[in-house]
Design brief:
The chain is of the alpha+beta class and 283 residues long. Helices cover 25% and strands 10% of the residues.
């Protein structure tokens, strides 16, 4: 008796299985490549948006009578200087960030610069990705990371920061318990030393490293994961306009020193404080 070869539209079963196996191998090779390309595209878009925000800050400082780099929202000081959604972006689920609230998107200085007076219409829900593009990171831009002792508003923790506050980024509003503003918040550009090293805006978890860094962080030490899935790495925008994807993980923070009254926040990635290189008591 002769054996019969099963055929499918001109292919034998064996040939069809070989073709399927080859396709499976090709897919297994291409998927990581496509995934990596997508991740790089997200990173590039994130960098472009953050660069645009830094450029808006520079333009703002040129037009502001006091040359302020970081705009002060009319309602900001009632909240001790928020440093994030007040400068620009869309509505948010967090308190004070939605339409007809204190930080209504129509009241934010960068929005007025970008879209013109009346150019922001109250018709978008929090988290709508169709508008306020430069304030968005398309990566996994979650807000504060769950961390022992950190706390934080629930809507901002392990949730999209853009949906919470209308922006994926926050301003460097470094401050201390004695009321000292140590970051760029409300500061004229002439009082920002070393603009190429000083962080102006950043993804929010970069700011969270102030509490978790292994040099002087006050909470359980450890590395956070940023918007682009790389442990310890975050997108930083500097006051001279350039943007860097920087390592802020273990071993990158410098110890704070008595010379700057322990108010210096610096590392191999740059600096957040605006203390002069030589500290003067009346500064």
């Amino acid at each position: 008796m002769q054996s019969k070869r099963v055929q499918f539209r001109g292919f034998t079963l064996i040939e069809l299985l070989v073709v399927i196996a080859i396709i499976a191998v090709l897919i297994s090779v291409l998927l990581p490549v496509l995934s990596a390309a997508r991740a790089e595209g997200q990173k590039a878009k994130c960098q472009a948006g953050l660069r645009d925000i830094c450029n808006q800050a520079s333009i703002y400082s040129q037009e502001d009578p006091k040359s302020t780099y970081g705009p002060i929202h009319p309602r900001a000081m009632q909240f001790s200087g928020e440093g994030y959604a007040e400068y620009g972006g869309g509505p948010g689920k967090a308190p004070f960030m939605n339409w007809n609230q204190e930080f209504d998107p129509r009241t934010r200085p960068f929005n007025a610069m970008l879209y013109g007076p009346g150019g922001v219409v109250a018709n978008t829900p929090p988290g709508d990705r169709g508008s306020f593009q430069i304030f968005q990171c398309p990566g996994e831009e979650y807000g504060w990371q769950e961390w022992p002792g950190f706390g934080g508003h629930a809507v901002e923790t392990e949730q999209p920061y853009f949906a919470a506050n209308g922006t994926s980024f926050r301003m460097n509003n470094l401050s201390w318990t004695d009321g000292t503003i140590g970051g760029i918040y409300g500061r004229p550009v002439t009082r920002i030393p070393s603009t190429g090293d000083t962080v102006g805006f950043m993804e929010c978890r970069a700011f969270q490293t102030l509490w978790t860094n292994d040099s002087w962080g006050s909470l359980t030490h450890g590395e956070l994961t940023g918007y682009h899935r790389k442990l310890g790495y975050f997108m930083l925008g500097f006051c001279d306009g350039h943007v860097s994807y920087s390592n802020m993980g273990n071993g990158t923070f410098y110890p704070r020193t008595q010379q700057w009254l322990f108010k210096n926040v610096r590392g191999s990635w740059g600096r957040m404080d605006c203390m002069p290189d030589e500290f003067y008591p009346d500064y």
